[in-house]
Design a protein that fits this description.
With 217 residues, this protein is of the alpha/beta class. 22% of the residues lie in helices and 21% in strands. Strands 1, 2, 3, 4, 5, 6, 7, 8 and 9 form a 9-stranded mixed β-sheet that branches. 29% of the residues are buried.
Length: 217
Amino acid sequence: MNSPYPDEQQASGRILIDLFTSLDGVAQGPGGTDEDPSGGFRFSGWQAGYPSSGVGPEIEKGMRGLDALLLGRRTYDIFAAYWPHHTSGESGDIGRLFNRVPKYVATRDANLTLDWEGSTRVGADLAAEVAAMRAAHREVHVIGSIDFVHTLLTEGLFDELNLWVYPLLLGAGKKVFDDDALPSVLRLLEPPIVDEAGVTLLRYARTDRVPQVGTFE
């Protein structure tokens, strides 16, 4: 397979991070009021409260190459409780896909019971485990899982960052990027896609380049 990322040596598969975020970078609890109110976050469910007709088709298009999921513990629990029971109707295609593919769960709890069929715990040696995923799969998608995403961004363990940016300002909340994100230059893969609600899809590739500094004369 030829690499789509000329800036780096690419393994056979890719790790893709898919996040919904407000304009000020908050990615906490987009899907439901009880998803993640930790830290006193007042807007859990903000994405569900701002309908967007353009997001669904782009998500479905982006899922076509998915052949594995890599999830943080909280997101895994939400998905495991929901998707096994939603394999028909409008979301049936995604439900059947998620149920069929391998699921990797990043957790420090070695005694965690994973009841969703095809689930495996990872986290003992994340760099080695991600390398093994790249060797075994074409596209491993990390959906939500903002706490775990911070680890991937800190260690540079991703290949593509897909951001659905909503025209909302939420203030406090868990941000896409925290202070530990690895300094790097990202490359825009395609022009931004914007729907009538103002939701913008930005697709970036990771590179091995680091930001340069200078002074304007």
